[in-house]
Amino acid sequence: MEFSKILLDKISYNLKEKNETISIAESVTSGFLQLAFSQMSEAIKFFKGGITAYTFDEKVKHLNIDFDEAKATNCVSRNISEMMALNVALLFDSDWSVATTGYATPVEESDNKIFAYYCIAYRGTIIRSDKIELHPLTKAFDAQKYFMEYILGCLRCEVKRDHSKLINI
User: Fold this and answer.
1) Nearest of 22, 29, 9 to residue 114 by alpha carbon
2) What is the pTM of this model?
3) What domains can you pick out in the chain, each with its CATH number?
4) Measured distance between the N- and C-terminal CA atoms of the chain, rounded to whole angstroms
5) What is the pLDDT of residue 168?
6) 125 and 166 in contact (C-beta within 8 Å)?
């Protein structure tokens, strides 16, 4: 898999320049985001790590997702992605965090749709939280790759901004 070097360089530059760290919680992207971060220049300086929690039980156990909410949503909702992002930041003690959950293939639980919820958080504050929808005939690998690239593009925009006023640092 190839990554946009310019995109990765911009994210790594901004994190290093601000001396800030990041962690990742993934489900639908199955480690693609963590792989992208491992390809960034001097990743050891800002990438603390990540977790791929693919199942309901693992999200509840490792990311402190509320059991009842997880059961009601099959662990796929905007709120679940937000809780994943906030909790992975606590788990890895990072400034930034990103989380994804969703469906890369059309299944009954997704109403036969392909979509992902993602969240970007900074120091305990949700900066961006949204849903990405794709055509139901999109191949799983292509969907996961698209979700990763889209989220990295959003992250690039956020890490270059000054969020200190927004969250009262």
Assistant:
1) 29
2) 0.94
3) 5-159 (3.90.950.20)
4) 38
5) 56
6) yes
**Secondary structure (DSSP) of 70-111:** HHHHTT-SHHHHHHHHHHHHHHHT-SEEEEEEEESS--GGGT
56 pLDDT higher than 90: no
> Model confidence over 73-114: pLDDT tens digits?
999 999 999 999 999 999 999 999 999 999 999 999 999 999
The token pair that represents 115 in the structure block:
């979509």
Residues in the chain: 169
Look up tokens 């491992």; give the residue.
38
- The DSSP result for 129-154, as a single string, is EEEEEE-TTS-HHHHHHHHHHHHHHH
CA distance 116 to 100: 7
- The alpha carbon torsion through 12, 16, 20, 21 (nearest 10 deg) reads 50
Give the phi and the psi of residue 75 in degrees, each rounded to 5: 65, 25
User: CB-based contacts of 134: which residues, under 8 Å, 6+ apart?
Assistant: 114, 115, 143, 146
Confidence of residue 1 (pLDDT cuts 50, 70, 90): confident
